[in-house]
Amino acid sequence: MIISYLLRKETIMEKLNIAGGDPLNGTVHISGAKNSAVALIPATILAHSPVTIEGLPHISDILTLRDLLREIGGNVHFEKGEMVIDPKPMISMPLPNGKVKQLRASYYLMGAMLGRFKKAVIGLPGGCHLGPRPIDQHIKGFEALGAEVTNEQGAIYLRAEQLKGARIYLDVVSVGATINIMLAAVLAKGKTVIENAAKEPEIIDVATLLTSMGAKIKGAGTDVIRIEGVESLHGCRHSIIPDRIEAGTFMIAAAAMGQEVLIDNVIPTHLESVIAKLREMGIRIEESSDQLLMVGGQKELKPVDLKTLVYPGFPTDLQQPMTSLLTKANGTSVVTDTIYSARFKHIDELRRMGAAMKVEGRSAIITGSAALQGAKVKASDLRAGACLVIAGLMAEGITEITGLEHLDRGYSQIEEKLSNLGAVVWREKLTDQELEQMQNS
Ligand code: EPU
Q1: Nearest to 234 by CA among 429, 5, 50, 4
Q2: Ligand 1: which residues within 6 Å by Cβ?
Q3: Which pLDDT value is given to residue 253?
């Protein structure tokens, strides 16, 4: 527990330097999906015997969740991407503060602990600041299943005599609410139907794990999910899906600076909207069953308009990295985020690097092509960090990125992966003067 805290503290005191301009070449292996992992790990609470999850990414969110499962009494062993969780000794310990505040996905502890113990106390989740991120649909789902939910001093208290299956229509298509309701419903009595459910691949991955644990779930990946409650769940072994957002980030980096970059360990159908958008810009992409070959060398990139939408639409998590690439296109592009209204904190940082862009309402308007220049910039959130890394690869001179605690929450071994592709990237401790400047800013 102490080690992961120290790791986190350390990355706050570091910066990532990128000497831009070098072409990318070679193969990058994509890690397991962060947004699946952060739900799969809490889901194991529901079992009564050990669950093994293989292929987990090396990111700080996973270490935080490992520590949280240990805090509630679980035996957790994590090595080389494989986590073995024995949930049997877990107790319904309240978690109103502390590590739950470090990540958004700690809200999955609500569904999982409510499902197993019929009660839970979880501090309101942290995570990236992307504008308002309510959890009213999660709560509506828990209440429909029979839980009493109250918010007391920043923590959510959930209690139920018994959970009973219900018909729940989500007013907003939400990944988190869909998964959380599934977690709470698998051990409820009777049948639950989630209508207007989200369809993201991560939802199918969680349903696959729960099914291997003995749950009865039909329709995951469509907008109606039907769950028949069971008496108990058991351990199993599960292999996580590849991270489509990490893959998309490397695809965008390759589109910006690549000669020939092979993205290995992907499910191309998870990235259809991204492949289509990059092709529209003039990028050549060859697909095979679990790889994508990005072929560079295009003289000119075309500007495009894009709108983020729920899956299978263009993912909001790749909107920020795309704005870096679009500085290279010849003309004006408009990027609209329909999911998060304020996911534009990266725009000011890109402007520092010489980008011509502005924000109007929910849209960023980007005028290209602009030659980016290295600068000192700060990642305000996880995908803003990815966007600045791509901009750094494209820029002339050295870019220094701080705010690495965000990047490290979601990208596994990013320097190693970029270095292997030929980028010049290194981490450095912040000097005392830089630390002081950061504290005052
Ligand atoms: N929403 C509500 N009420 C709710 C839940 C959501 O109004 O009860 C709204 C949100 O404010 C947002 C929209 O519905 O406008 C979609 O939110 P969703 O619940 O789908 O997002 P989430 O589950 O909180 C996950 C990912 C995000 C990703 C979104 C959208 C995790 C831990 N997070 O968040 O990932 O952007 O889905 O795909 O799975 C990231 O990886 O950088 C990241 C932020």
Answers
A1: 50
A2: 35, 38, 104-105, 128, 132-138, 172, 174-177, 198, 245, 316-317, 339-340, 382-383, 410
A3: 98
Give the C-alpha distances (Å, rounded to integers) separating 170 from 141, 162, 196, 205: 8, 22, 5, 20
Provide the pLDDT for residue 2: 43
How many angstroms separate the first and last alpha carbons of the chain?
30
Calculate mean pLDDT across residues 213-228: 98
Give the C-alpha separation, 154 to 122, whole Å.
9
User: Which string of DSSP letters, residue by residue, matches 64-98?
Assistant: HHHHHHHHTT-EEEEETTEEEEE-TT-----B-SG
- For ligand 1, atom 10, the nearest C-alpha belongs to 133
Hey, whose CA ends up nearest to atom 24 of ligand 1?
A: 176
236 counts as catalytic? no
CB 243 within 8 A of CB 205: no
For residue 125, whether the previous peptide bond is cis, meaning omega lies within 30 degrees of 0, is no
Angle, in degrees to the nearest 10, between helices 34-43 and 244-257: 170
- Model pTM? 0.95
Residue 8: its pLDDT value, please?
A: 53
Q: Which residue minimizes the CA distance to atom 12 of ligand 1?
A: 339
Which residue in 24, 28, 103, 128 is the catalytic one? 128
**Longest CA span, the chain:** 65
Summarize the confidence of residues 86-103 as an average pLDDT: 94
Q: How far apart are CA 388 and CA 335, in angstroms?
A: 17
Instruction: Work out which ligand 1 atom sits closest to the CA atom of 136.
Output: 8
Contact 428, 14 (CB under 8 A): yes
pLDDT band at 4 (very low <50, low <70, confident <90, very high): very low
Question: 436: CA distance to ligand 1 center in Å?
Answer: 34
User: Which of 31, 34, 35 has the most ligand 1 atoms within 8 A of CB, as the residue to mutate?
Assistant: 35
